[in-house]
Write a structure and sequence with these properties.
- The chain is of the alpha+beta class.
- The protein has two domains: 1-32; 35-165, Cathepsin D, subunit A, domain 1 (Beta Barrel).
- The chain contains three helices and eleven strands.
- The protein has helices spanning 2-32, 86-91, 146-149; strands spanning 41-42, 48-53, 61-66, 69-75, 82-85, 97-104, 107-121, 124-134, 141-144, 152-157, 160-165.
- The strands form two sheets. Strands 3, 4, 5, 6, 7, 8 and 9 form a seven-stranded mixed beta sheet that branches.
- A hairpin with a 5-residue loop joins β1 and β2 (48-53).
- It is globular.
- The chain starts with a helix and ends with a strand.
- This is Aspartyl protease family protein.
- GO terms for molecular function: peptidase activity.
- Pfam families: gag-asp_proteas.
- It comes from Thiobaca trueperi.
C-alpha cells in the first residue's frame, strides 16, 4: 500500500522536497547577507557614520565600492589589508605587483599587492588603500581589513558596528 501511494505521489513528494530545500537555502543565504546600500548620516557628534547590523552568523557584511565599482565586503579586523580574489582584482582591472607569502586560514600562499584609489562604505571614503590579492580566496566577497578600518572609529555594541571617520588620525 505504501509503495502504491509513493508511486502515485512521487512527483508531488519530489516537488515538495525541492521547495523545502530552496526555502532552507534562501534562509541560510539571508542569514549570511546584510547591510545592502548603506548610507552615512550625521551621528551624535555631527560626524558622518554608517551603522551596520550583524547577520545571522554574527558577521558584518556590507555593500560598497572599490575605485567606484560595486563590491560586497566582509568586515575582517584580523586582515591587515583589503583582501580579494585574483578573479575580482582582474574584474576591477587592478595593476598588480608581485607580493610576498601570506599566512592565511588555508595556509601560506603567494599573493600580489595593489593600491586602491578609493574604498567607499556608505560614503565613508578612504583613498590610497593597500590591497592584497590572493589566488585561493574563494567567492566574490572582499575582506575589509585594517588598511581601511584604521581610518575609522569602530564601535561594536548590541549587534551593531558603527563606523565613523577617526578625527585623531
Amino acid at each position: 500500500m505504501k509503495q502504491a501511494w509513493l508511486k502515485q505521489n512521487s512527483s508531488s513528494v519530489l516537488v515538495l522536497l525541492a521547495v523545502l530545500a530552496l526555502v532552507l537555502l534562501m534562509g541560510v543565504q539571508m542569514r549570511q547577507r546584510g547591510n545592502p546600500n548603506p548610507v552615512a548620516y550625521p551621528g551624535p557628534s555631527g560626524l558622518p557614520q554608517v551603522v551596520l547590523k550583524e547577520n545571522g552568523v554574527h558577521q558584518y557584511v556590507v555593500t560598497g565600492r572599490i575605485n567606484g565599482e560595486p563590491v560586497e565586503f566582509l568586515v575582517d579586523t584580523g586582515c591587515a589589508d583589503v583582501a580579494m580574489s585574483y578573479w575580482l582584482a582582474q574584474r576591477l582591472r587592478l595593476p598588480l605587483q608581485q607580493g610576498e607569502m601570506h599566512v592565511t586560514g588555508n595556509g601560506n600562499v603567494q599573493g600580489w599587492s595593489a593600491r586602491l584609489d578609493s574604498v567607499d562604505v556608505g560614503g565613508l571614503i578612504v583613498r590610497q588603500v593597500n590591497a592584497t590579492v590572493l589566488p585561493n580566496l574563494q567567492g566574490g566577497q572582499v575582506l575589509l581589513g585594517m588598511a581601511y578600518l584604521r581610518h575609522m572609529e569602530v564601535i561594536l555594541a548590541g549587534g551593531e558596528m558603527t563606523l565613523r571617520p577617526d578625527v585623531n588620525r
